[in-house]
Amino acid sequence: MDSHHSDTPVTPAQSVPDGVRRRGVLAGAGLATVAGLLGTAAGASPAAAATPAKPATAMPVRFGDDGKLRILQINDTQDTHLTDRRTIELIEKSLDTEKPGLVVLNGDTINGGPATEKQVKQAYNNIIRPIEERGVKWAMVFGNHDEDSLGNDTGMTEQKIVDWIHDVYPNNLNPAIDPKLYGHSNGQLLIRSSRANEPAFGVWLFDSNRYAPGTIGGQSREGLKNYDWIHADQVNWYREASLATEERYGRKIPSLAFFHIPLWEHHHLWFGTQFGSDPATHAAAAKKHGIVGEKHEDVYVGAWNSGLYAAMQERGDVRGVYVGHDHINTYMGDYYGIELGYGPGTGYGTYGLSGAEQHRLRGTRVFELDENADGVYTGTRTLFARDLGIDTAPGNQRIAEPAPLP
C-alpha cells in the first residue's frame, strides 16, 4: 500500500517522510483580485478583533466575450523539488485542453521533502511555472503539508512562501496577509461580467489550517481527528464579507468555495446520515443527493465542525464547496442545495490507490461558468490523466532537475 496521511501532527522539528502511512483507508466504493486575505498561523491564540470585512472591488479579469469562463482545480501535487514528470504533464495538458480563466491550487502543493529554502521554491515553481507560462491567473490555498519542510530547517513558513510568490509571479492573485484571522489563504475573488463593470460570479478561498493541538481545553485530543479546522473568526469573516458584497452590488453573488480539508458534511453527503459510516446507507444517499464519483478512504475532517456549511446555507451565495486532502476520493453531490465534492489528487509523487491502480485517479477538476445561464455555474467534471493520454503506470518518474526559478 502506498503512503498516506500521518495521524501525527507535523511540527517544525518533524517532517513527513514519503513512507508515512495514513490510517483507516477504505477499500470501497478572467478574474477579480483577491480581497481580504487574512490569517495567522494555525493553532495560534484566538485572534484580536478583525478588520471589518469588505467586498472585493477590483476585477481585472472578466468573462469571455461569449460570457463563459472555466476554473481549474489542482490539489495535492505534494512532492519535492524533483516532481514526478507526469504531474507536470497533467497540469500542462489540463491547461491546454481546458484553457481556464482561473486556476486554484487547492493545498498540499509540496511535501516535507525539500531540505533547503531553494528546494522549497523549486518544488512550488515546478507546479506554478506551467500556469505562469500560459499567462493564466491563479491563486492558492494552503493545506496541512505546505509547511512540513520546516522540519528540515528550511525556514519557509506560509508567510514567507506568500511573500516570495508575490515577488516573482505576476499572475498570482494572493494579496498581502492581514494577521487578524487564522490562516494565510483566506480571500474573496470576483469575476467581472463581460457586459458590465460588475461581478457575475465569485470565488471564496479559505485556509483550513494544519493540525489540531494535542490537548484542547486541558484534555487529550485522542479520539478526535488529527486536523485543524476553519476557525470561528474565519466563518465570521465570510459572513460579513458576503453581506458587504450583497450590500455593495444589490444582490447575492453566486460563488464557489475552495479549501483543502473537507467539511464534516462531505462525510454526511456520502453516507446520508450525520453520525453513521455504514456503507449500506450509501445507495439511498447517492440517489437523494445525486452523488457521482468514487470513495476509497475515510473523510479526514478537522477535529471540530465549526459551522462554515451552516453559514453558507444561511447566506445562500455558495453553490459548491470543493476540497482535496483525501487523494483517492473523487465524489461530489448536491447536499441540500450546496454541492460538496473533491478534486482528484493531481500529484503522482504521493499516495494513490493500491497496486497496479496506484495512479488511476490522478486528475484535475473543471468548473464551467456561463453568465448567460441561470445561476452562472453550470456544472463540474473530473479530468483524469488517463483521459489525456498520460502514463498511469505505478511508481515514480521524477524529473532529473527542477525547472529554472524565475
UniProtKB/TrEMBL annotation:
It comes from the Bacteria. InterPro entries: Calcineurin-like_PHP, Metallo-depent_PP-like, TAT_signal. PROSITE patterns: TAT. This is Metallophosphoesterase. The lineage of its organism: Bacteria, Bacillati, Actinomycetota, Actinomycetes, Micrococcales. Residues 69-328 form the Calcineurin-like phosphoesterase domain.
